Amino acid sequence: MDLKIENLSVKFKDFVAVDGLNLHVKSGELVSLLGPSGCGKSTTIFTIAGIHKAANGSISFNDKVIDNVDPEKRNIGMVFQNYSLYPHMNVFDNIAFPLKLQKKDKQYIKENVLYMANLVKIEELLKRKPSELSGGQQQRVAIARALVKKPEILLLDEPLSNLDAKLRVEMRSEIRRIQKELNITTIFVTHDQEEALSISDKIVILKDGKLQQYDLPNELYKNPKNLFVANFIGNPSINIFDCYISKEKNVLNIFDKNLKLDDFKNIDKISEKVNSYKVGIRPEDFVVNANNKYFDGKIMDRENIGKDSILKVDINGAKVKIVVPYDLLSLETKDISIGIKKDRLLFFDAETGENIKFA
Ligand SMILES: Nc1ncnc2c1ncn2[C@@H]1O[C@H](COP(=O)(O)OP(=O)(O)OP(=O)(O)O)[C@@H](O)[C@H]1O
Ligand SMILES: [Mg+2]
Fold first, then answer.
1. Which of 21, 122, 237, 268 is deepest in the core (most CB within 10 A)?
2. Domains in the chain and their CATH numbers?
3. Measuring from each residue's beta carbon to the nearest atom of ligand 1, which residues come in under 6 Å?
4. In ligand 1, which atom is closest to the CA atom of 36?
């Protein structure tokens, strides 16, 4: 099912929770809604489900406007953060429940419940009550129950947030597998960027109810449209600094040091409209103790994250995060020379926050 959202706004009294959202999700795609708490993710999917009404704009399924279609007629499967399984029913009856509401016959119900149980790999748990299941198993039951009606759209609102870190990673690839197997159009809400980056075809970044960027996971990382997206995507987060640029003098000044502007590819689009710039440098886009030395740095602190170390480095008074392989430097090393990967720098209009590539 193809999903189109056009100029959608949703209000709670005077408060605008979703503000002029446009979005096209193609049939069979998994799209994540990603953004900080309160940015309008749940409101958006509740409106797709028909639980909230739009103040403005419209939603279409396969080019048919559904704004006046009742929630139960929209043919949507939904899974929430707390699963909301029926505690007094066993797993079989939980999954069967939507089909019983539809008055399907016994044989049909049995076949379909078994098919779903098999798909989400809980065949051996059908007689248990929800309280006798682990978090991950409950979550599989909730997915099976959402899918048993053969919905055309699956809406998942932070379905993994009650699980521990390892199980979350396991379950997210399970969700991806099931979604691909059924080829079902899916909207996945999360505030976890790693989760979104790992399972999505495309990602929507929301802030204050407004769309910031709708793009492929890699593009969000490589070409963030503005400072908000640049800061939000990437862990450890990007370094952002004021910089000075003069085309006439062929100068890019970073950390009080003049570099040759024409060495830097990403800044070919200098506009008269931009008065001041900020530069964004990802922690892995510095080069430590290599040939292209630009700056001297002093290591102030380091944090180990397994295969990498995050160095907190002082460059001319600026505090910079740099990621290096864990075994690059001895623990005693304090003074380092620093270069940068010249084609990776991102430049932003300091006033609007826009990436100058898109300005
Ligand atoms: N029923 C409601 N009445 C009034 N305001 C609401 C209602 N539901 C949501 N809001 C407000 O709308 C904004 C968006 O809420 P929403 O639940 O969509 O955020 P979210 O992105 O899902 O956040 P979270 O990550 O915390 O779940 C918030 O500021 C919230 O307080
Ligand atoms: Mg929410």
1. 21
2. 3-232 (3.40.50.300), 239-349 (2.40.50.140)
3. 12, 15, 17, 35, 37-43, 191
4. 25
